[in-house]
C-alpha cells in the first residue's frame, strides 16, 4: 500500500474533486468519509443541521472512511469549510483513528471563507501528529496551484 492516504468528506462534490486531484498527483490511496445519516439536500436545511452539530462538537456515526490507517504515514484530510471549521464527519474520523506520529496535511474547499479555523482545529485534534502546510480552494480551483502545493509537500515528505 501507499504511504499516502487522501481522506475527505464532501457535501457537494467540490472537496471530492480536489481530493481526487491530490490522490492522482501523489499516487496516494483515496477514501471517502460517509456519515450514517446524510445531511439535508437543501442548503438551508443542511446549514441548520451543521451549525448545531459544530456547536455541540457532535461526531456523527460513520459508515465508511474510518477504517485503519496503520499502513499510512501521510494523511491528507479534506473538508468543506463549514462555519469556519471542518465538517462534523471529519471530527468523527479524527477521533476514531490513531494519528499518533502521522503527518497530517489539511485541505479545504470554501465559498470565500478560506481555511477559517480548520488548520487550528485539526491541530487541536491531532496533538501527537505533525501538521504540514495545507491548501484551500474555491470550487473553481486551479490544477496548477494544487500541483505546486503538492510539489512543496512532496519536498517535505522526501
UniProtKB/TrEMBL annotation:
InterPro entries for the chain: Flavodoxin/NO_synth (IPR008254), Flavoprotein-like_sf (IPR029039)
GO MF annotation: an example: FMN binding
Domain Flavodoxin-like: 3-153
Domain of life: Bacteria
Name this protein carries in UniProt: Flavodoxin
